[in-house]
Each structure stands twice: as C-alpha cells, then as structure tokens.
C-alpha cells in the first residue's frame, strides 16, 4: 500500500493540474471574446456610418452613447480628452477658494520676519541677483521681500503647486500675446497675483477675469459685456487687451515696477505717490504712499516670480495636466448652442467646456448677426464638430423646441434652510449642492468674501424644484452601483441634477476610474 500511495497522489495532482489549465484556457477564451465585443471601435471619420447601416450587431457592440432624435443618430466614441484635467487640477478649476485666499493674503500681507531655514538669506540674495540680471524688473534683495517669499514657501506651497499646474495651460497663451507686444514674458506672473489664474474671478469691486478688468476699462479695450457673454473672462481677448494696456502704461512710466503698481491701483494713484515722496520713481520709496493693496502687490509679484523660477530647488511637485492651450482649437458657431447640447453630441464633459469657454456666463453660446462667437474644444473634437455641424444644429433646434414647456415651480421664500458649514466645504460646493449661485449665498448672508469657517450657519433658499408629483422628486436614488461600461459622464446623464463633479465630490474621488460593483453616492442622503 505504501508503494501504491505515491502513484495515486501523483495521478491526482496531474488530473487537478490538467483541469486547472483547461479552466484557464476557457477563461482566457471567454475573456478574449468578451473583450473583443466590448472594444469594437468605429474610426473617427465614420462616426455617422450607423445612419445608413443595417448591422444591428455592430450598433449594439459599439461602446458609445447614442442620441436618437428625428431620425438622427449620433454614435460617438467615449472622448479620451474628457478626462484631460487630472483630479487635483480639476478640483481647483471649479472652486473659487484659491482666488479668495490669495486675494486676502495680498491685502493682509505679513511683512514680519519669517523663520524658514531651508532658504538662507545668502542663497536668496544670489538667486535674486541672477533673476535681476535677466529681467527688466528691479529684483533686488529687500528684507520685506525676503519675508514675503519665505511666507509663501512656508504657508502657500499647496496653492502654488496648484497654480503651477494651471499655468501649464495658460502660460503658452500669455507668452504668445506678451511677445507680440514686446512685453517682458515675466509679466505672465501678474495674472497669478490678479486672479489666481481663475478666468471667472471677480473682485469685491467688480474687476473680472484673468487680468481683472473693470467694466469701463474693459470696454475701452474692446471687451464686450452682455447678458450672455463677458469677454473679460475670455482668456484670449482679455490677454490681448491686458497686453495693450500694459504697453500704454509703459510708454507713460518707462519703469516696469511702476507699470505693475499702476495696473493695480491706477496711474493716478501712482502719480500722487510720486508727488508725496518728493519725486522718487523707485517703487520701494513709493510704497508708503500707495494704497495698502498696491503696497503688497509688487512684493507678491516678485515673490511669485521667484517661486516659479526656483520651483525645482524648493521641491515643488505640481500635477501635470495632459493638455495645453495649443492642444485646443476653436470653431465659429452659426446657431445658438448650450453647453449641455455640445456635451451630448461631442462627448466632451460640460465641466471641461466651461473651463475652455469661460466667457459664456450662463453656459450658452448666443447667435447674433454680425457677431462672431467661437467654441473652444480639444483638438481631436473640432474636426468632428465641423464635419457634422448641420446635424448638430438640427439636434440643437429640436432640443430648443422641447424646452417650450412649463418650468417646474421653484421653492418659495418660506422653504429656506439653515446650513451648517462642514470641514472641506467652500461656497462653490455648497452652491452646487443646493442649485444656487455663490453670489446668491453671499447676498443672503451678507458675506463680503468667500471665506467660511467650520460650524458657521448659512441661510439658503434651495433652487430644487417642488414637484407636484412626489415620484419625480425621488427619481434619483441616493446610491448607484457601477456597471460594466459605465463612466462618470454616462452615470451623471442618467439622473437629473447629478454632475460629474458632484459624484466626485460626494465620493472623495481624485480620479475618474471606475470598477463594476463599486457603489457611488449620488446625494447627501
């Protein structure tokens, strides 16, 4: 028996091994077959081939979303550029706290001595000398400037990394325009001090956009403002206007430090400061006679210039967006289009459309004769849009006719709520959650800035429809189980009032990857 037992065990192990290999072969075969079915792709030039195709199996296997209206079928590939903005970058794009925080630090800039041993004074002096040698700005060592630089390095590192990520999109555009007008390329850092690279930034006095134009100054430089469009928020037009304005200021002052000061406070305040200082034209001698915000303006600019130029030496590691300004293109629109319609027919996320086209105030591109309005898209979407333009306009017209229906009744003033601010909240997030605007929340609560504190109570009048049919109010479940082939964009389209950014915020998601079986929160409940 002892002699036979080893042979029995050997035969059993060989049998088990054979079964395992057979099972693996079946799995591999099944997976390959399933993968083939899931990855059928139509070439980009054949997006509309389904219009004339009778191949039902092909249509069912194409991993695209389809919109069927008046016999027009849009069969679109999932746009690979929809996730161009990585998680950290995208998070900063769609909230306003970065701008408000930098503005507060500019007004209340701290000149007290800052202990930051990682940057010895001698090292800073040598680096400033090198910067001074290659720029027309007076980048000279000053104890006040040293304290500002060290304060930024010590307290604003995260904000600066986020700004560095945004700058990889905007700076190529800025440099192109500045070079055209023979302006030092370092002036690109001015937009960081002005707006924290937020094209929709708006100051407490109404200055708007990347370059913070007031209404009248914007009009002087050809920036149109209407109910639909605010060209002060258009990156291209506002940068062109800023370059023209800066050139004009330099012809007057012949000094770039004074140009910066006058850009912030106005030429009149700078000329007054020159008189009060006894005729000095050195910025540091004028500082005591300038408005408080302007007194901190040039140090903030120089500190930003230093940090960006020596980012590597200080260990900054900004996230790298996978697109730049030059990887986008524009098309001139010939009909009124909404961002929702464009997102549906192109597959480009609405949030990305808002980022690329910030001048459209209510996410609608108007159509007015003798006016030219453009749509900026990722480069690989523009050809598709142009080739199928008429079909897209027909679809937009059909959606417009559908809107001629009674709108749901909105909540009345008696249904106000008291909201308590939680950790991680900011005004944009709270406004999106309740379907209202940031400016409305600020008006209801007499807020002068965007700063909030944990535990603070806010009065809000939610803009959630009061539906007469209770079933419609519960149409969106509180959770959703991810299925094979789902994406954040496709899930958001299944439920009213749910956006990609809302899903990511509720589920603390940094990326856009999903796995079948994953449970996602769709509401606060």
UniProtKB/TrEMBL annotation:
Keyword hit for Transferase: no
Domain LysM stretches: 417-460, 478-522
InterPro entries: LysM, LysM_dom_sf, Lysozyme-like_dom_sf, Transglyc_AS, Transglycosylase_SLT_dom_1
Keywords, in A-Z order: Signal
Signal peptide range: 1-18
CDD domains on file: LysM, MltD-like
Stated family: Belongs to the transglycosylase Slt family.
PANTHER family linked: LYSM DOMAIN-CONTAINING GPI-ANCHORED PROTEIN 2, MEMBRANE-BOUND LYTIC MUREIN TRANSGLYCOSYLASE D
The protein's name in its UniProt record: LysM peptidoglycan-binding domain-containing protein
Organism from which the protein derives: Salinimicrobium flavum
